[in-house]
Amino acid sequence: MSPLSPAALADRQDVVDTVVRYGCALDAKDWAGARSCFADEIETDYADLRGTGPERVAAQAFVDLRRRALEGLKTHHMSTNHLVTLDGDRAICVSAMLIHRLDPRRESDNTFDTLAYYTHGLIRTTQGWRIARVQQRVAWNRGNPAVHPGARPARP
Question: For residue 4, which phi and psi values (nearest 5 degrees)?
């Protein structure tokens, strides 16, 4: 593997920062900040968590869904093990994400945690790198799926 150029190193860091910034915005309930991480339209695949197929959606609609699902929860999205592949004005960032969710309105059975592997497809825009594709593959869930309105019920 040949060393990356300074420009490629900067791109790699910007790609990782965009993915991490999105998770931080969700935790801060900063919906405008979350929206700023995305291209105007995105492809999503959350089949493992939601039981739905891939879809193409406007970024604002995607963020609005996150807001409705997460606004009453305390969350922590921890993004690690970023592997970035650069290809001109496109990039792929594969990472692991540990998501903790706590519903403070519930007295018991109030957590739902997920370890998932994400593949984010990003494009370079005049405003910087933006996420254009999100694929989530769940390794495991733990806790009460009713805590997260976006999760399908546990299978028997």
Answer: -80, 145
pLDDT digits (tens, 9 = 90+) for 80-123: 999 999 999 999 999 999 999 999 999 999 999 999 999 999 99
Nearest CA to 134 out of 53, 49, 52, 42 is that of 42
The β-bridge relationship of strands 38-45 and 128-143 is parallel
Enumerate domains of the chain plus CATH numbers: 6-147 (3.10.450.50)
Q: Say what the alpha-carbon torsion angle 124, 130, 132, 138 is, to the nearest 10 degrees.
A: 130
Average pLDDT over residues 62-88: 97
Instruction: Tell me the per-residue pLDDT of 10-21, one tens digit each, with 9 for 90 and over.
Output: 999 999 999 999
Q: What is the 3-state secondary structure (H, E, C) of the chain?
A: CCCCCHHHHHHHHHHHHHHHHHHHHHHHCCHHHHHCCEEEEEEEECHHHHCCCCEEEEHHHHHHHHHHHHCCCEEEEEEEEEEEEEECCEEEEEEEEEEEEECCCCCCCCEEEEEEEEEEEEEEECCEEEEEEEEEEEEEEEECHHHCCCCCCCCC
What pTM was estimated for this model as a whole?
Answer: 0.92
